[in-house]
Amino acid sequence: MIKKGECMYMQHKFISYIGATPEKVWDTLIGPEGTRAIFFDCLFQSELTPGSKFAYVGPGNDGEETVHVYGEIIDIDPGRMMSVIEHPGPSYYENHAELTSRITYTLDAVGETTKLTLVNDQFTENHPSFERSEDNWAVVVSNLKSYVETGKTLNFGW
Question: How many CA atoms lie within 13 A of 19 on its CB side?
């Protein structure tokens, strides 16, 4: 945690180099096959324009169409960057609409690889998901790298 002025500024940051083009990594992050593989059988639903809504929907507490995460795209440069404000799904917390954080994916070509920078920051105060999100993002980023490079996700034994 970093102090910024009088309030706490909490963030998680991950950098990974992936043996593929930014386009392939992007397609995995937003396409149905990729999101199902790396986001626990969820589909990413959005029009992919600034101001549009998004949701990750898949099996969960509310059945096959559980909304796990939802929010709004605040900035997007397809194939290179996407920044969103997200909320945890309604089945996770009664006050889900009040809980937010920002997630930013940035993809940069580095030789024949892609540098993925993922930052999850601007958490609302006392956000109950902050502590777990670090481990969750580590799993997602690891699965993304493995899936893009090998076509398989990692077996965590769950």
Answer: 5
CB 15 within 8 A of CB 125: no
Q: Which has the closest alpha carbon to 99: 61, 140, 127?
A: 127
Q: What pTM was estimated for this model as a whole?
A: 0.91
d(CA 94, CA 109): 41
**AA letter at 33:** E
Of residues 86, 10, 12, 11, the one with CA closest to residue 42: 86
Who has greater pLDDT, 2 or 93? 93
pLDDT tens string 99-149: 999 999 999 999 999 999 999 999 999 999 999 999 999 999 999 999 999
